[in-house]
Amino acid sequence: MATSSISRAAKNPINFSARNVESQKKQTHSRYLSFSHSTISLQKLSLVKGYHISRKLHKTAVFNVLETVESRSGSVSRTRDPDNVVNTERPTILVSEKLGEAGLDLLRTFGNVECSYNLSPEELCAKISLCDALIVRSGTKVTRQVFEAAKGRLKVVGRAGVGIDNVDLQAATEFGCLVVNAPTANTIAAAEHGIALLASMARNVAQADASMKAGKWQRNKYVGVSLVGKTLAIMGFGKVGSEVARRAKGLGMHVIAHDPYAPADRARAVGVELVSFDQAISTADFISLHMPLTPTTNKIFNDETFSKMKKGVRIVNVARGGVIDEDALVRALDNGTVAQAALDVFTKEPPPNDSKLVQHENVTVTPHLGASTKEAQEGVAVEIAEAVVGALKGELSATAVNAPMVPPEVLSELAPYVTLSEKLGRLAVQLVAGGSGIQSVKVVYKSARDPDNLDTRLLRAMITKGIIEPISDSHINLVNADFTAKQKGLRISEERVVADSSSDYPIDSIQVHVSNVESKFASALTDNGNISIEGRVKYGIPHLTCVGSFGVDVSLDGNLILCRQVDQPGMIGRVGNILGERNVNVSFMSVGRTVKRTKAIMAIGVDEEPDKDTLKKIGEVSAIEEFVFLDL
What we know:
Layout: E1 3-5, H1 21-25, E2 48-49, E3 52-53, H2 55-66, E4 68-71, E5 74-78, E6 87-88, E7 92-95, H3 101-108, E8 112-115, H4 121-128, E9 133-136, H5 144-150, E10 156-159, H6 169-174, E11 178-181, H7 187-202, H8 205-213, E12 231-235, H9 239-250, E13 254-258, H10 264-270, E14 273-274, H11 277-283, E15 286-289, H12 303-307, E16 313-317, H13 326-334, E17 338-343, H14 356-359, E18 363-365, H15 374-392, H16 408-431, E19 432-433, E20 440-447, H17 457-468, H18 481-487, E21 491-498, E22 509-515, E23 518-519, E24 531-538, E25 541-547, E26 550-555, E27 559-566, H19 571-581, E28 586-593, E29 599-606, H20 612-620, E30 624-631
Parallel strand pairs: 1-30, 7-8, 7-9, 9-10, 10-11, 12-13, 12-15, 13-14, 15-16, 16-17, 17-18, 20-21
Antiparallel strand pairs: 2-3, 4-5, 5-6, 19-23, 20-22, 22-24, 24-25, 25-26, 27-29, 27-30, 28-29
Protein backbone atom coordinates (compact mmCIF):
# COMPACT_ATOMS: atom_id res chain seq x y z
CA MET A 1 0.00 0.00 0.00
CA ALA A 2 1.32 3.40 -0.88
CA THR A 3 2.00 5.69 2.05
CA SER A 4 1.58 9.41 1.76
CA SER A 5 2.43 12.63 3.50
CA ILE A 6 0.06 15.29 2.25
CA SER A 7 0.43 18.98 2.94
CA ARG A 8 -2.55 21.40 3.12
CA ALA A 9 -3.76 22.05 -0.41
CA ALA A 10 -3.40 25.47 -1.97
CA LYS A 11 -6.68 27.33 -2.12
CA ASN A 12 -5.97 29.14 -5.37
CA PRO A 13 -3.38 27.28 -7.44
CA ILE A 14 -1.84 29.30 -10.26
CA ASN A 15 -0.33 27.99 -13.47
CA PHE A 16 3.10 29.05 -14.58
CA SER A 17 4.69 28.30 -17.92
CA ALA A 18 7.42 25.69 -18.11
CA ARG A 19 10.85 26.96 -17.23
CA ASN A 20 13.39 27.57 -19.98
CA VAL A 21 16.48 25.50 -19.24
CA GLU A 22 18.72 27.67 -21.34
CA SER A 23 17.73 30.79 -19.43
CA GLN A 24 18.62 29.02 -16.22
CA LYS A 25 22.10 28.31 -17.46
CA LYS A 26 22.66 32.01 -17.95
CA GLN A 27 22.18 32.62 -14.25
CA THR A 28 25.55 32.70 -12.52
CA HIS A 29 27.07 32.73 -9.07
CA SER A 30 26.90 36.51 -9.05
CA ARG A 31 23.16 36.51 -8.28
CA TYR A 32 22.34 38.17 -5.02
CA LEU A 33 19.90 36.64 -2.58
CA SER A 34 17.09 38.62 -0.96
CA PHE A 35 15.40 37.29 2.12
CA SER A 36 13.36 38.76 4.96
CA HIS A 37 15.55 38.02 7.94
CA SER A 38 19.09 38.56 6.72
CA THR A 39 22.44 38.15 8.41
CA ILE A 40 25.49 40.27 9.31
CA SER A 41 29.16 39.92 10.04
CA LEU A 42 30.86 42.03 12.66
CA GLN A 43 33.10 43.59 10.07
CA LYS A 44 30.73 44.88 7.40
CA LEU A 45 27.05 45.31 6.72
CA SER A 46 25.62 45.04 3.23
CA LEU A 47 22.05 45.69 2.22
CA VAL A 48 20.28 43.55 -0.30
CA LYS A 49 17.17 44.60 -2.17
CA GLY A 50 16.13 42.18 -4.89
CA TYR A 51 19.28 41.48 -6.86
CA HIS A 52 20.82 44.92 -6.39
CA ILE A 53 23.23 46.09 -3.71
CA SER A 54 23.19 49.82 -3.07
CA ARG A 55 26.75 51.07 -2.52
CA LYS A 56 25.52 54.25 -0.86
CA LEU A 57 23.26 52.38 1.56
CA HIS A 58 26.00 49.86 2.23
CA LYS A 59 28.44 52.64 3.11
CA THR A 60 25.91 54.21 5.43
CA ALA A 61 24.97 50.91 7.05
CA VAL A 62 28.58 49.92 7.76
CA PHE A 63 29.09 53.34 9.28
CA ASN A 64 25.95 53.03 11.39
CA VAL A 65 26.92 49.70 12.96
CA LEU A 66 30.60 50.29 13.53
CA GLU A 67 30.98 53.99 14.16
CA THR A 68 29.76 54.06 17.75
CA VAL A 69 32.52 54.77 20.25
CA GLU A 70 32.82 55.61 23.89
CA SER A 71 34.77 58.49 25.34
CA ARG A 72 35.85 58.99 28.92
CA SER A 73 32.98 61.40 29.53
CA GLY A 74 30.37 58.96 28.24
CA SER A 75 29.14 57.42 25.01
CA VAL A 76 29.77 59.36 21.83
CA SER A 77 27.63 58.46 18.87
CA ARG A 78 28.03 59.85 15.36
CA THR A 79 25.27 60.75 12.98
CA ARG A 80 24.41 58.43 10.12
CA ASP A 81 25.85 60.31 7.16
CA PRO A 82 29.43 59.09 6.70
CA ASP A 83 30.20 61.99 4.42
CA ASN A 84 29.13 64.59 6.99
CA VAL A 85 30.16 63.33 10.44
CA VAL A 86 28.82 65.24 13.44
CA ASN A 87 29.44 64.14 17.03
CA THR A 88 26.79 64.24 19.71
CA GLU A 89 27.63 63.65 23.33
CA ARG A 90 24.92 61.12 24.04
CA PRO A 91 22.52 59.17 21.80
CA THR A 92 18.86 60.14 21.79
CA ILE A 93 16.40 57.35 22.63
CA LEU A 94 12.72 57.89 21.84
CA VAL A 95 10.24 55.81 23.89
CA SER A 96 6.84 55.97 22.18
CA GLU A 97 4.86 53.76 24.58
CA LYS A 98 4.91 53.29 28.33
CA LEU A 99 7.94 51.43 29.65
CA GLY A 100 8.75 50.32 33.20
CA GLU A 101 10.86 52.72 35.29
CA ALA A 102 13.66 50.17 35.72
CA GLY A 103 14.14 50.10 31.95
CA LEU A 104 13.95 53.87 31.65
CA ASP A 105 16.56 54.28 34.39
CA LEU A 106 18.92 51.95 32.55
CA LEU A 107 18.44 53.89 29.30
CA ARG A 108 19.08 57.21 31.05
CA THR A 109 22.50 56.03 32.22
CA PHE A 110 23.51 55.76 28.57
CA GLY A 111 21.59 58.30 26.53
CA ASN A 112 19.06 61.12 26.45
CA VAL A 113 15.61 59.57 26.84
CA GLU A 114 12.48 61.24 25.45
CA CYS A 115 9.12 59.71 26.36
CA SER A 116 6.46 60.78 23.87
CA TYR A 117 3.32 58.65 23.95
CA ASN A 118 0.35 58.38 21.58
CA LEU A 119 2.23 59.87 18.64
CA SER A 120 0.43 59.99 15.32
CA PRO A 121 2.32 58.54 12.33
CA GLU A 122 3.08 62.07 11.17
CA GLU A 123 4.39 63.12 14.58
CA LEU A 124 6.58 60.03 14.80
CA CYS A 125 8.07 60.73 11.37
CA ALA A 126 8.74 64.34 12.39
CA LYS A 127 10.65 63.31 15.52
CA ILE A 128 12.53 60.25 14.27
CA SER A 129 15.26 62.09 12.33
CA LEU A 130 16.61 63.36 15.67
CA CYS A 131 16.74 59.90 17.30
CA ASP A 132 19.32 57.13 17.43
CA ALA A 133 16.98 54.54 18.95
CA LEU A 134 13.24 53.94 19.15
CA ILE A 135 11.47 51.72 21.68
CA VAL A 136 7.89 50.62 21.00
CA ARG A 137 5.34 48.12 22.18
CA SER A 138 2.58 46.76 19.93
CA GLY A 139 0.69 50.03 19.39
CA THR A 140 3.28 51.96 17.38
CA LYS A 141 3.63 51.08 13.69
CA VAL A 142 7.24 51.42 12.57
CA THR A 143 6.69 51.59 8.82
CA ARG A 144 8.96 52.19 5.86
CA GLN A 145 7.95 55.83 6.03
CA VAL A 146 9.42 56.03 9.54
CA PHE A 147 12.77 54.63 8.38
CA GLU A 148 12.78 56.98 5.40
CA ALA A 149 12.04 59.95 7.67
CA ALA A 150 14.93 58.94 9.96
CA LYS A 151 17.32 59.82 7.12
CA GLY A 152 19.76 57.12 8.15
CA ARG A 153 20.20 58.20 11.77
CA LEU A 154 18.06 55.53 13.47
CA LYS A 155 20.38 52.74 14.63
CA VAL A 156 18.05 50.39 16.51
CA VAL A 157 14.36 49.73 17.07
CA GLY A 158 13.52 47.90 20.29
CA ARG A 159 10.21 46.03 20.57
CA ALA A 160 9.25 45.65 24.24
CA GLY A 161 7.73 42.21 23.88
CA VAL A 162 7.91 39.26 21.49
CA GLY A 163 5.89 40.04 18.36
CA ILE A 164 7.40 42.25 15.66
CA ASP A 165 4.39 42.44 13.32
CA ASN A 166 4.29 46.22 13.76
CA VAL A 167 7.86 46.75 12.51
CA ASP A 168 8.77 46.68 8.81
CA LEU A 169 11.79 44.36 9.03
CA GLN A 170 12.70 44.60 5.37
CA ALA A 171 12.79 48.40 5.50
CA ALA A 172 14.79 48.29 8.75
CA THR A 173 17.38 46.07 7.12
CA GLU A 174 17.59 48.19 3.99
CA PHE A 175 18.23 51.30 6.08
CA GLY A 176 20.83 49.61 8.27
CA CYS A 177 18.67 49.60 11.41
CA LEU A 178 18.86 46.69 13.84
CA VAL A 179 15.58 45.44 15.33
CA VAL A 180 15.65 43.70 18.72
CA ASN A 181 12.89 42.33 20.94
CA ALA A 182 12.40 41.03 24.49
CA PRO A 183 11.27 37.42 24.14
CA THR A 184 11.82 35.96 27.62
CA ALA A 185 10.51 38.31 30.30
CA ASN A 186 6.81 37.59 29.60
CA THR A 187 7.08 33.82 29.97
CA ILE A 188 5.78 33.33 33.51
CA ALA A 189 3.07 35.98 33.18
CA ALA A 190 1.71 34.37 30.00
CA ALA A 191 1.78 30.90 31.58
CA GLU A 192 -0.05 32.14 34.69
CA HIS A 193 -2.69 33.83 32.55
CA GLY A 194 -3.17 30.62 30.60
CA ILE A 195 -3.78 28.70 33.83
CA ALA A 196 -6.11 31.46 35.08
CA LEU A 197 -8.22 31.21 31.92
CA LEU A 198 -8.16 27.41 32.10
CA ALA A 199 -9.55 27.36 35.65
CA SER A 200 -12.03 30.22 35.22
CA MET A 201 -13.38 28.62 32.02
CA ALA A 202 -13.80 25.23 33.67
CA ARG A 203 -15.76 26.77 36.55
CA ASN A 204 -17.69 29.42 34.58
CA VAL A 205 -16.24 32.21 36.73
CA ALA A 206 -16.77 35.05 34.23
CA GLN A 207 -20.34 34.04 33.39
CA ALA A 208 -21.30 33.54 37.04
CA ASP A 209 -19.80 36.91 37.96
CA ALA A 210 -21.79 38.69 35.23
CA SER A 211 -24.94 36.85 36.31
CA MET A 212 -24.63 37.92 39.93
CA LYS A 213 -23.95 41.53 38.98
CA ALA A 214 -27.16 41.38 36.99
CA GLY A 215 -29.01 40.49 40.21
CA LYS A 216 -29.33 36.74 39.53
CA TRP A 217 -28.48 33.67 41.64
CA GLN A 218 -28.02 30.75 39.20
CA ARG A 219 -26.06 28.01 40.97
CA ASN A 220 -27.50 25.20 38.85
CA LYS A 221 -26.77 26.92 35.55
CA TYR A 222 -23.05 27.35 36.15
CA VAL A 223 -22.01 23.86 37.21
CA GLY A 224 -18.43 23.42 36.02
CA VAL A 225 -16.01 20.56 35.36
CA SER A 226 -13.01 19.43 37.38
CA LEU A 227 -9.43 19.63 36.12
CA VAL A 228 -8.10 16.67 38.12
CA GLY A 229 -7.55 13.61 35.95
CA LYS A 230 -8.35 15.43 32.72
CA THR A 231 -5.99 15.37 29.73
CA LEU A 232 -4.47 18.71 28.74
CA ALA A 233 -2.78 18.99 25.31
CA ILE A 234 -0.11 21.68 25.11
CA MET A 235 0.23 22.73 21.46
CA GLY A 236 3.72 24.23 21.34
CA PHE A 237 6.12 23.12 24.08
CA GLY A 238 8.38 26.17 24.23
CA LYS A 239 9.02 28.47 27.18
CA VAL A 240 5.39 29.33 27.90
CA GLY A 241 4.01 25.91 27.02
CA SER A 242 6.42 24.10 29.34
CA GLU A 243 5.57 26.48 32.22
CA VAL A 244 1.86 25.86 31.67
CA ALA A 245 2.57 22.12 31.72
CA ARG A 246 4.36 22.36 35.09
CA ARG A 247 1.44 24.22 36.62
CA ALA A 248 -1.17 21.91 35.10
CA LYS A 249 0.66 18.88 36.50
CA GLY A 250 0.38 20.52 39.91
CA LEU A 251 -3.39 20.67 39.41
CA GLY A 252 -3.50 16.93 38.87
CA MET A 253 -3.93 16.99 35.10
CA HIS A 254 -2.47 14.46 32.66
CA VAL A 255 -0.39 16.54 30.24
CA ILE A 256 0.57 15.67 26.68
CA ALA A 257 2.22 18.00 24.16
CA HIS A 258 2.90 18.44 20.48
CA ASP A 259 5.96 20.31 19.26
CA PRO A 260 8.19 19.14 16.37
CA TYR A 261 11.30 20.57 18.04
CA ALA A 262 10.82 19.86 21.72
CA PRO A 263 13.45 17.40 22.96
CA ALA A 264 11.80 14.27 24.36
CA ASP A 265 14.11 14.23 27.40
CA ARG A 266 13.10 17.80 28.35
CA ALA A 267 9.43 16.85 28.10
CA ARG A 268 9.95 13.70 30.16
CA ALA A 269 11.67 15.75 32.86
CA VAL A 270 8.42 17.68 33.31
CA GLY A 271 6.33 14.51 33.14
CA VAL A 272 4.94 15.29 29.69
CA GLU A 273 4.50 12.90 26.78
CA LEU A 274 5.22 14.22 23.26
CA VAL A 275 2.66 13.03 20.72
CA SER A 276 1.61 13.77 17.15
CA PHE A 277 -0.67 16.70 16.29
CA ASP A 278 -3.66 14.47 15.52
CA GLN A 279 -3.19 12.39 18.67
CA ALA A 280 -3.00 15.51 20.80
CA ILE A 281 -6.20 17.11 19.53
CA SER A 282 -8.20 13.86 19.39
CA THR A 283 -7.50 12.69 22.96
CA ALA A 284 -7.46 15.96 24.92
CA ASP A 285 -10.19 17.21 27.24
CA PHE A 286 -8.51 20.64 27.31
CA ILE A 287 -6.24 22.17 24.64
CA SER A 288 -3.90 25.07 25.43
CA LEU A 289 -2.34 26.86 22.44
CA HIS A 290 1.24 28.15 22.64
CA MET A 291 2.35 27.99 19.02
CA PRO A 292 3.64 30.89 16.92
CA LEU A 293 1.71 32.39 14.04
CA THR A 294 3.48 31.31 10.84
CA PRO A 295 2.23 30.44 7.34
CA THR A 296 2.14 26.82 8.52
CA THR A 297 0.06 27.51 11.65
CA ASN A 298 -2.22 30.21 10.24
CA LYS A 299 -5.82 29.02 10.91
CA ILE A 300 -4.49 25.54 11.69
CA PHE A 301 -7.47 25.15 14.02
CA ASN A 302 -10.28 25.09 11.47
CA ASP A 303 -13.40 23.08 10.62
CA GLU A 304 -11.36 20.01 9.70
CA THR A 305 -9.27 20.20 12.86
CA PHE A 306 -12.27 20.73 15.15
CA SER A 307 -14.00 17.69 13.59
CA LYS A 308 -11.16 15.48 14.87
CA MET A 309 -11.49 16.66 18.47
CA LYS A 310 -13.26 14.91 21.33
CA LYS A 311 -16.79 16.25 21.65
CA GLY A 312 -16.95 18.74 24.50
CA VAL A 313 -13.30 19.79 24.34
CA ARG A 314 -12.30 23.11 25.93
CA ILE A 315 -9.73 25.43 24.33
CA VAL A 316 -7.45 28.13 25.78
CA ASN A 317 -5.43 30.51 23.58
CA VAL A 318 -2.88 32.94 25.01
CA ALA A 319 -0.54 32.69 21.99
CA ARG A 320 -1.61 34.25 18.68
CA GLY A 321 -5.15 34.86 17.49
CA GLY A 322 -4.48 33.89 13.87
CA VAL A 323 -3.85 30.22 14.64
CA ILE A 324 -7.63 29.79 15.08
CA ASP A 325 -10.18 30.22 12.30
CA GLU A 326 -12.58 32.26 14.42
CA ASP A 327 -15.65 31.58 12.26
CA ALA A 328 -14.93 27.85 12.44
CA LEU A 329 -14.61 28.09 16.23
CA VAL A 330 -18.05 29.72 16.47
CA ARG A 331 -19.50 26.84 14.44
CA ALA A 332 -17.75 24.30 16.67
CA LEU A 333 -19.13 26.04 19.77
CA ASP A 334 -22.65 26.12 18.33
CA ASN A 335 -22.68 22.41 17.44
CA GLY A 336 -21.16 21.35 20.77
CA THR A 337 -17.85 20.03 19.45
CA VAL A 338 -16.14 22.69 21.54
CA ALA A 339 -17.86 23.13 24.90
CA GLN A 340 -16.01 26.31 25.90
CA ALA A 341 -13.17 28.56 24.83
CA ALA A 342 -11.06 31.08 26.76
CA LEU A 343 -9.27 33.57 24.54
CA ASP A 344 -6.74 36.30 25.27
CA VAL A 345 -5.75 36.92 21.64
CA PHE A 346 -7.68 37.52 18.43
CA THR A 347 -7.07 37.67 14.69
CA LYS A 348 -7.85 41.38 14.75
CA GLU A 349 -7.17 43.34 17.92
CA PRO A 350 -9.29 44.79 19.28
CA PRO A 351 -11.99 42.54 17.77
CA PRO A 352 -15.19 44.13 16.41
CA ASN A 353 -17.81 45.05 19.01
CA ASP A 354 -20.33 42.76 17.31
CA SER A 355 -17.96 39.77 17.15
CA LYS A 356 -20.01 36.56 17.45
CA LEU A 357 -17.03 34.87 19.07
CA VAL A 358 -16.55 37.51 21.76
CA GLN A 359 -20.28 37.65 22.49
CA HIS A 360 -20.72 33.86 22.62
CA GLU A 361 -22.04 32.73 26.01
CA ASN A 362 -19.54 29.86 26.19
CA VAL A 363 -16.48 32.01 25.53
CA THR A 364 -14.38 33.78 28.17
CA VAL A 365 -12.33 36.67 26.79
CA THR A 366 -9.60 39.04 28.01
CA PRO A 367 -7.98 41.93 26.08
CA HIS A 368 -4.51 40.45 25.42
CA LEU A 369 -3.45 40.46 29.08
CA GLY A 370 -0.93 37.61 28.88
CA ALA A 371 2.04 39.83 29.66
CA SER A 372 0.17 42.30 31.83
CA THR A 373 1.64 41.87 35.28
CA LYS A 374 3.74 44.48 37.06
CA GLU A 375 6.63 42.05 37.30
CA ALA A 376 6.52 41.12 33.62
CA GLN A 377 6.29 44.74 32.53
CA GLU A 378 9.39 45.62 34.57
CA GLY A 379 11.20 42.55 33.23
CA VAL A 380 10.38 43.43 29.63
CA ALA A 381 11.51 47.02 30.22
CA VAL A 382 14.90 45.91 31.53
CA GLU A 383 15.36 43.27 28.83
CA ILE A 384 14.63 45.65 25.94
CA ALA A 385 16.68 48.45 27.51
CA GLU A 386 19.70 46.17 27.77
CA ALA A 387 19.28 45.06 24.15
CA VAL A 388 18.96 48.64 22.86
CA VAL A 389 21.93 49.93 24.86
CA GLY A 390 24.00 46.99 23.63
CA ALA A 391 23.08 47.74 20.04
CA LEU A 392 23.98 51.42 20.46
CA LYS A 393 27.37 50.29 21.76
CA GLY A 394 27.86 48.27 18.58
CA GLU A 395 27.23 44.90 20.23
CA LEU A 396 25.15 42.25 18.47
CA SER A 397 22.27 40.82 20.47
CA ALA A 398 20.98 37.26 20.37
CA THR A 399 17.49 38.80 20.32
CA ALA A 400 18.09 40.55 16.98
CA VAL A 401 15.19 39.70 14.66
CA ASN A 402 16.56 41.26 11.56
CA ALA A 403 20.24 41.11 10.93
CA PRO A 404 23.42 42.73 9.79
CA MET A 405 24.73 40.83 6.75
CA VAL A 406 27.97 39.39 5.41
CA PRO A 407 30.22 41.48 3.14
CA PRO A 408 28.84 41.84 -0.38
CA GLU A 409 31.78 40.10 -2.06
CA VAL A 410 31.24 37.03 0.13
CA LEU A 411 27.48 37.15 -0.32
CA SER A 412 27.76 37.33 -4.10
CA GLU A 413 29.85 34.15 -4.15
CA LEU A 414 27.81 32.28 -1.54
CA ALA A 415 24.35 33.50 -2.65
CA PRO A 416 23.21 30.33 -4.47
CA TYR A 417 24.68 28.17 -1.68
CA VAL A 418 22.75 30.22 0.88
CA THR A 419 19.57 29.40 -1.03
CA LEU A 420 20.61 25.75 -1.28
CA SER A 421 21.33 25.54 2.45
CA GLU A 422 17.94 26.93 3.49
CA LYS A 423 16.06 24.67 1.08
CA LEU A 424 17.96 21.59 2.25
CA GLY A 425 16.98 22.51 5.81
CA ARG A 426 13.34 22.88 4.76
CA LEU A 427 13.42 19.53 2.97
CA ALA A 428 15.01 17.78 5.94
CA VAL A 429 12.42 18.95 8.47
CA GLN A 430 9.54 17.97 6.19
CA LEU A 431 10.94 14.45 5.84
CA VAL A 432 10.85 13.91 9.61
CA ALA A 433 7.87 12.00 11.06
CA GLY A 434 6.70 11.31 14.59
CA GLY A 435 6.67 13.42 17.73
CA SER A 436 10.27 12.97 18.88
CA GLY A 437 11.57 16.12 17.18
CA ILE A 438 14.92 16.85 15.53
CA GLN A 439 17.82 16.84 17.95
CA SER A 440 20.94 16.09 15.92
CA VAL A 441 21.91 17.34 12.46
CA LYS A 442 25.24 16.85 10.69
CA VAL A 443 26.22 19.03 7.74
CA VAL A 444 28.98 17.91 5.37
CA TYR A 445 30.54 20.45 3.00
CA LYS A 446 32.60 19.12 0.09
CA SER A 447 34.97 21.70 -1.35
CA ALA A 448 38.22 21.86 -3.29
CA ARG A 449 39.30 24.84 -1.20
CA ASP A 450 41.31 24.75 1.99
CA PRO A 451 38.80 23.93 4.76
CA ASP A 452 40.38 26.62 6.96
CA ASN A 453 39.45 29.25 4.37
CA LEU A 454 35.83 28.12 4.06
CA ASP A 455 33.57 30.25 6.26
CA THR A 456 30.38 28.23 6.69
CA ARG A 457 28.71 30.29 9.45
CA LEU A 458 26.19 31.80 7.06
CA LEU A 459 25.41 28.42 5.48
CA ARG A 460 24.97 26.78 8.87
CA ALA A 461 22.69 29.64 9.90
CA MET A 462 20.57 29.17 6.77
CA ILE A 463 20.29 25.40 7.32
CA THR A 464 19.14 26.21 10.87
CA LYS A 465 16.71 28.77 9.41
CA GLY A 466 15.31 26.18 7.00
CA ILE A 467 14.83 23.61 9.75
CA ILE A 468 13.34 25.86 12.44
CA GLU A 469 11.48 28.76 10.79
CA PRO A 470 8.72 26.87 8.91
CA ILE A 471 7.05 25.86 12.19
CA SER A 472 8.39 28.44 14.61
CA ASP A 473 8.20 32.16 15.29
CA SER A 474 11.99 32.34 15.59
CA HIS A 475 13.77 34.59 13.08
CA ILE A 476 17.12 33.01 12.27
CA ASN A 477 20.23 34.96 11.27
CA LEU A 478 23.99 34.76 11.60
CA VAL A 479 23.81 36.35 15.03
CA ASN A 480 21.22 34.13 16.68
CA ALA A 481 21.32 30.85 14.73
CA ASP A 482 23.48 28.90 17.18
CA PHE A 483 21.71 30.46 20.17
CA THR A 484 18.26 29.55 18.84
CA ALA A 485 19.32 26.03 17.88
CA LYS A 486 20.68 25.47 21.39
CA GLN A 487 17.47 26.79 22.94
CA LYS A 488 15.46 24.29 20.93
CA GLY A 489 17.77 21.41 21.77
CA LEU A 490 19.07 21.17 18.19
CA ARG A 491 22.72 20.12 17.83
CA ILE A 492 24.28 20.98 14.47
CA SER A 493 27.75 19.63 13.73
CA GLU A 494 29.80 20.34 10.62
CA GLU A 495 32.38 18.43 8.61
CA ARG A 496 34.49 19.76 5.76
CA VAL A 497 35.65 17.22 3.16
CA VAL A 498 38.20 17.98 0.45
CA ALA A 499 36.64 17.35 -2.98
CA ASP A 500 38.42 16.63 -6.23
CA SER A 501 36.76 19.47 -8.11
CA SER A 502 37.40 23.01 -9.28
CA SER A 503 38.41 25.56 -6.65
CA ASP A 504 36.72 28.28 -8.74
CA TYR A 505 33.58 27.60 -6.74
CA PRO A 506 33.52 27.67 -2.95
CA ILE A 507 31.55 24.43 -2.47
CA ASP A 508 31.05 21.27 -4.50
CA SER A 509 28.11 19.87 -2.51
CA ILE A 510 26.29 20.11 0.82
CA GLN A 511 24.91 17.08 2.65
CA VAL A 512 22.42 17.24 5.53
CA HIS A 513 22.07 14.19 7.80
CA VAL A 514 19.34 14.02 10.48
CA SER A 515 19.91 11.39 13.18
CA ASN A 516 17.60 9.42 15.47
CA VAL A 517 14.31 10.27 13.76
CA GLU A 518 11.63 8.48 11.78
CA SER A 519 10.99 9.54 8.21
CA LYS A 520 7.78 10.20 6.30
CA PHE A 521 9.67 8.92 3.25
CA ALA A 522 11.57 5.75 4.13
CA SER A 523 13.74 5.97 1.02
CA ALA A 524 15.39 9.08 2.47
CA LEU A 525 17.01 6.87 5.14
CA THR A 526 20.53 5.56 4.65
CA ASP A 527 21.83 2.22 5.90
CA ASN A 528 22.70 3.78 9.27
CA GLY A 529 19.09 4.92 9.75
CA ASN A 530 19.67 8.65 9.21
CA ILE A 531 17.71 10.91 6.88
CA SER A 532 20.22 12.02 4.25
CA ILE A 533 19.89 14.54 1.42
CA GLU A 534 22.50 16.22 -0.75
CA GLY A 535 22.43 19.29 -2.95
CA ARG A 536 24.66 21.14 -5.41
CA VAL A 537 24.59 24.41 -7.29
CA LYS A 538 24.41 24.07 -11.09
CA TYR A 539 24.47 27.11 -13.35
CA GLY A 540 23.77 29.23 -10.27
CA ILE A 541 20.63 27.22 -9.39
CA PRO A 542 20.33 24.98 -6.28
CA HIS A 543 19.63 21.34 -7.14
CA LEU A 544 18.75 18.28 -5.08
CA THR A 545 21.17 15.56 -6.15
CA CYS A 546 20.71 12.73 -3.66
CA VAL A 547 17.92 11.38 -1.42
CA GLY A 548 19.03 8.55 0.86
CA SER A 549 21.05 6.28 -1.42
CA PHE A 550 19.24 7.35 -4.60
CA GLY A 551 20.78 9.87 -6.97
CA VAL A 552 18.39 12.48 -8.41
CA ASP A 553 18.79 15.78 -10.23
CA VAL A 554 16.02 18.31 -9.74
CA SER A 555 15.97 22.08 -9.33
CA LEU A 556 14.95 23.25 -5.85
CA ASP A 557 12.51 25.80 -7.19
CA GLY A 558 8.79 25.65 -6.47
CA ASN A 559 7.58 22.44 -4.83
CA LEU A 560 8.73 18.85 -4.98
CA ILE A 561 7.11 15.40 -5.10
CA LEU A 562 9.27 12.37 -4.28
CA CYS A 563 8.02 8.90 -5.26
CA ARG A 564 9.58 5.51 -4.61
CA GLN A 565 8.43 3.15 -7.31
CA VAL A 566 9.04 -0.13 -9.05
CA ASP A 567 11.49 0.66 -11.87
CA GLN A 568 9.39 -0.10 -14.93
CA PRO A 569 8.44 1.64 -18.20
CA GLY A 570 5.69 4.24 -18.31
CA MET A 571 5.93 5.57 -14.77
CA ILE A 572 6.97 9.09 -15.77
CA GLY A 573 4.08 9.30 -18.20
CA ARG A 574 1.48 8.00 -15.74
CA VAL A 575 2.39 10.45 -13.00
CA GLY A 576 2.84 13.29 -15.49
CA ASN A 577 -0.64 12.64 -16.91
CA ILE A 578 -2.22 12.75 -13.44
CA LEU A 579 -0.60 16.13 -12.76
CA GLY A 580 -1.43 17.45 -16.22
CA GLU A 581 -5.10 16.49 -15.91
CA ARG A 582 -5.26 18.58 -12.71
CA ASN A 583 -3.50 21.56 -14.34
CA VAL A 584 -0.37 21.18 -12.21
CA ASN A 585 2.66 22.34 -14.17
CA VAL A 586 5.78 20.14 -14.02
CA SER A 587 9.03 22.10 -14.08
CA PHE A 588 11.57 19.27 -13.70
CA MET A 589 11.54 15.51 -13.44
CA SER A 590 14.38 13.18 -12.54
CA VAL A 591 14.60 9.44 -11.87
CA GLY A 592 17.36 7.81 -9.84
CA ARG A 593 17.87 4.12 -9.18
CA THR A 594 20.38 1.81 -7.53
CA VAL A 595 19.81 -1.34 -9.58
CA LYS A 596 18.12 -1.63 -12.98
CA ARG A 597 14.48 -2.80 -12.96
CA THR A 598 14.21 -2.89 -9.16
CA LYS A 599 13.54 0.29 -7.18
CA ALA A 600 13.75 3.91 -8.30
CA ILE A 601 13.14 7.38 -6.92
CA MET A 602 11.26 9.86 -9.10
CA ALA A 603 11.70 13.53 -8.14
CA ILE A 604 9.17 15.89 -9.70
CA GLY A 605 9.33 19.67 -9.48
CA VAL A 606 5.90 21.33 -9.66
CA ASP A 607 4.91 24.98 -9.81
CA GLU A 608 1.72 24.57 -7.78
CA GLU A 609 0.78 22.55 -4.72
CA PRO A 610 -1.41 19.65 -5.90
CA ASP A 611 -4.69 19.18 -4.07
CA LYS A 612 -5.37 16.13 -1.92
CA ASP A 613 -7.27 14.26 -4.66
CA THR A 614 -4.34 14.64 -7.06
CA LEU A 615 -1.88 13.35 -4.49
CA LYS A 616 -4.24 10.50 -3.66
CA LYS A 617 -4.35 9.47 -7.34
CA ILE A 618 -0.55 9.41 -7.45
CA GLY A 619 -0.53 7.19 -4.35
CA GLU A 620 -3.03 4.82 -5.99
CA VAL A 621 -0.65 4.02 -8.87
CA SER A 622 0.14 0.36 -8.13
CA ALA A 623 3.87 0.61 -8.81
CA ILE A 624 4.35 3.56 -6.42
CA GLU A 625 5.30 2.28 -2.98
CA GLU A 626 5.50 5.61 -1.14
CA PHE A 627 5.51 9.30 -1.90
CA VAL A 628 5.76 12.65 -0.17
CA PHE A 629 4.94 16.23 -1.16
CA LEU A 630 7.50 18.83 -0.04
CA ASP A 631 6.83 22.56 0.11
CA LEU A 632 9.96 24.56 -0.70
